[in-house]
């Protein structure tokens, strides 16, 4: 039995090495020199054994970037799955600090220490999850104070080795302009809702101008795009199933973007990973990009936000 176990582990390591080669061609170098895999496995609404098993499956499939957050309450399960993997040293971890952890410098500092403890190591990327403090009116001045105070703590955490890179999530242009006015360390990433129904072109262009990498979430438009004839036709043209085709849409955006995808079913996780194919039988890389551009134009006049709205936060 021990020999069979050893054989399985060696086979898993070989599989990890093969997958890692594929992922190495799908990374982006952030402004601080940190290399980040562009295809991340998301864990929103995953908990306990379901989360641990889903992350384990994602790593076997080939994902090398796992996305979590303090408010997901699953960092411990994520950490356990990563440590149990033969690919543990290759895995890039992202976590986020929640609005209720932005009430004071001490609270934010403790929250970051909690992330490190639950993951079992420092995250590679730490994000401010939302541009405002919890339980405050949208127009409250406390949001501005909380953003600046939280960023000071993030900069110290970076100096102390509690993360390799720092960024934000759900920040609008005006939130970023304000942050850039006082940040000693500029944000490396802005994680935002991004899909053909909500292409965020102005925000993408602003971030490119300031060296902030865009990471999109909800690439399927909360599932609504899977039933849209235009999206289905695009998927058919590029030779991918609808879900990975929409994931690929984000990966083909200009400037270069990353994307977070999620599934609890290993078959869907395997399917999503096919978004990384350089080309398909039906289309070359240039063809795929052209079809993706056409899909963005098709939704240009009907832009519609599907997730929570940070624009209301002062």
Q: Give the radius of gyration.
A: 19 Å
Number of β-strand runs: 10
What is the end-to-end distance?
61 Å
Order of helices and strands: HEEEHEHEHEHEHEHEHHEHH
Overall pLDDT confidence: 92
Largest sheet: 8 strands, parallel, barrel
Poorly predicted parts: 17-25
Q: List the total number of helices.
A: 11
Report the helical percentage.
Answer: 40-55%
**Net shape:** globular
> Which class do the helix and strand fractions yield?
alpha/beta
Q: Provide the spatial order of strands within the biggest beta sheet.
A: 3-4-5-6-7-8-9-10
What portion of the residues fall into strands of 2 or more residues? 5-15%
Structure keywords:
single chain; 314 residues; alpha/beta; eight-stranded parallel β-barrel; two-stranded antiparallel ribbon; 11 helices; 10 strands; 45% helix; globular
How does this model look, in words?
Helix 2 runs parallel beside helix 10 (266-273), helix 5 (142-159) packs across helix 6 (173-182) and helix 8 runs antiparallel to helix 11. The N and C termini lie far apart (61 Å). This protein has eleven helices and ten strands. It has helices at residues 2-24, 48-61, 75-83, 105-119, 142-159, 173-182, 201-209, 229-238, 242-251, 266-273, 285-298, and strands spanning 27-29, 35-37, 39-42, 65-67, 92-97, 125-128, 165-169, 189-193, 213-217, 257-261. The chain has an eight-stranded parallel barrel, surrounded by five helices. Strands 1-2 form a two-stranded antiparallel sheet. It has 314 residues and is α/β, with parallel strands linked by helices. Helices cover 45% and strands 14% of the residues. Helix 3 (75-83) links the parallel strand 4 (65-67) and strand 5 (92-97).
């Amino acid at each position: 039995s021990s020999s069979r176990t050893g054989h399985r582990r060696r086979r898993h390591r070989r599989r990890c090495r093969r997958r890692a080669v594929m992922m190495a061609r799908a990374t982006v170098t952030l402004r601080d020199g940190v290399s980040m895999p562009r295809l991340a496995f998301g864990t929103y609404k995953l908990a306990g054994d379901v989360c641990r098993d889903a992350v384990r499956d994602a790593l076997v499939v080939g994902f090398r970037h796992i996305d979590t957050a303090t408010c997901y309450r699953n960092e411990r399960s994520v950490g356990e799955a990563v440590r149990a993997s033969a690919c543990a040293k290759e895995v890039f971890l992202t976590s986020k600090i929640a609005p209720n952890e932005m009430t004071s410098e001490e609270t934010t500092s403790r929250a970051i220490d909690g992330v490190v403890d639950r993951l079992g190591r420092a995250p590679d990327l730490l994000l401010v999850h939302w541009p405002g403090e919890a339980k405050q009116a949208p127009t409250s001045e406390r949001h501005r104070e909380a953003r600046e105070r939280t960023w000071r703590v993030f900069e110290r955490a970076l100096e102390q080795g509690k993360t390799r890179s720092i960024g934000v999530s759900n920040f609008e242009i005006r939130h970023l302009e304000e942050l850039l006015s006082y940040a000693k360390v500029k944000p490396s990433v802005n994680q935002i809702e991004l899909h053909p129904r909500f292409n965020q072109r102005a925000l993408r262009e602003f971030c490119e101008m300031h060296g902030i990498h865009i990471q999109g979430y909800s690439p399927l438009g909360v599932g609504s795009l899977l039933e849209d004839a235009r999206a289905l036709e695009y998927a058919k043209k590029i030779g991918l199933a609808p879900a990975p085709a929409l994931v690929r849409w984000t990966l083909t955006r200009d400037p270069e973007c990353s994307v977070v995808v999620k599934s609890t079913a290993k078959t869907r996780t395997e399917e999503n990973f096919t978004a990384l194919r350089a080309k398909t039988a039906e289309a070359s890389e240039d063809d795929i990009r052209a079809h993706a551009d056409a899909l963005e134009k098709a939704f240009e006049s009907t832009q519609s936000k599907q997730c929570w709205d940070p624009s209301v936060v002062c």
